[in-house]
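Need Glycosyltransferase family 4 protein's 3D structure for a figure. Predict it.
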Amino acid sequence: MKILIASHTYIVDLNRQKLRALSQLAPNIEVTAIVPQRWNPGGVQTNIIETQFLQENTFQVLPLSHLSQNNQGLLIFGADLIQFLRQWRPDIIQIEQGSKALTYTQFIFLNQILGLKAKNIFFTWWNLPYQLKWPISQIEAYNLRHTHGLVAGNQDAAEILRHQGYTGPTLVAPQLGVDETRFRPQPQPQLKAQLGIAPEDFIIGFVGRFVEEKGLLTLAKALTTWQPNRNWKWLLLGRGPLHQTITAWAEENHLQQRLCIVESVPHDQVPNYINLMDVLILPSETTDKFKTLTATGWKEQFGHVLIEAMACQVPVIGSDSGEIPHVIGDSGLIFPEGDATALQNCLTQLVDNPTLAKDLGQRGYQRAMSKYTNHALAQQLLDFYQEIISS
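Structure prediction for Glycosyltransferase family 4 protein:
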C-alpha cells in the first residue's frame, strides 16, 4: 500500500513519528509525506523553514514547490507534484489541511485526471459551526463529494462535517501522538530542589498559553480559598498576556510562595517538568463568542498536554470544553467549565485520596499507551485505510 500524506505540519521532524510508525507496520507499506519547500510561520522573515528531502527505508519526506508560504488554506503545490504522482501512483491520498483547502481540491483533481484511482481522505481539527460564502462553499462541496474518508481530530469536527453533508467513513483521532520514549514516568528530585519545591509539596501543574480561554482565572479562583491538608504549589509552564494578572493575584492573596512560573522550557525538557506534578489541570473554557453560535470563538480542540501527562502517569483534571472529556475518558476527573467550586472539589479528591490519584495515573497511562502513542495512531490509520480500500 502506497500512502501519500500532505501537510505543512510535517516540515518539523518531531511531527513525523506517526508516519514513520505507519511505514513500519507491514513490509508492503510505503509512506510519502509531501511538504512545502519553504514555510514562513507568522510571516516573519527570520522564521523561514527550508525543508530537506529525507529517505528512511519505506518512509520519505518530499519537499515540493508551492504557492503561499504561510497560509495553509491557500497552499497549492507546483508542477513537480504532477510528475511525482504519475510515477509513484499512491493508493491513499490524505491531505491534512481541512475540508475547504485548495490543496485538497488540487489533489482530488489530479487524482482524477491522472487516473490514479486513489482514495481521497482529509484531516481536520475545525470544531466550530460555520457558514461559507461562494466560492469557498463550492470548493468544500466539491471536496466532500469526492471524499472517501474523514479523519477528524475531535468528535465535534466529525459532527460538524456531517452537518455540512459528509456521510462517509470517519475516524476520530488526533493528528499527532505522544512519544512514550520521552513522556514517561521519571522522578525529578534535582529539578524539584532547583525550583524550591519541597518533597512533600502537592504540585498542581499547567502547561500552555497564559490566556483566558485556557481557564487560568477559574483555576486561580479555585486555589484562592482552597485549604487542603497538604502544602501545595502551582507550577505553570508557558507564557502569555495573563502572566501579570496571575502574579498580581498571588500577591493580592499572599500566595507568592505557592506560585512557580517557568516561561522558557525547551520542548525536550517539558517531560521533566510534567513529572514534577501531582496533577495536571487543563481548565479550558469555550469563549462567549462561540456560545452565540457565530463562526468565531474557540473551544478546546484536543488538549495534547493531557496525553503527555497521562503517559507520565500524572493524574489529570479537565473541564468539559470541547474534546477534553473524550480524551480523558474514565481515566481522570472532569468538571463543568468555569466552575471553580467543582474544580476545587476535584483537587480535594486527589489530595484526600492518594489511592484514587494513583489509580487515575495508572488508568491514564494505559489509555495513552493504547490510544494515543504514534504507533497506536498509525495502527488506527492503517485499519481505516484498509476499511476504505476494501469497501
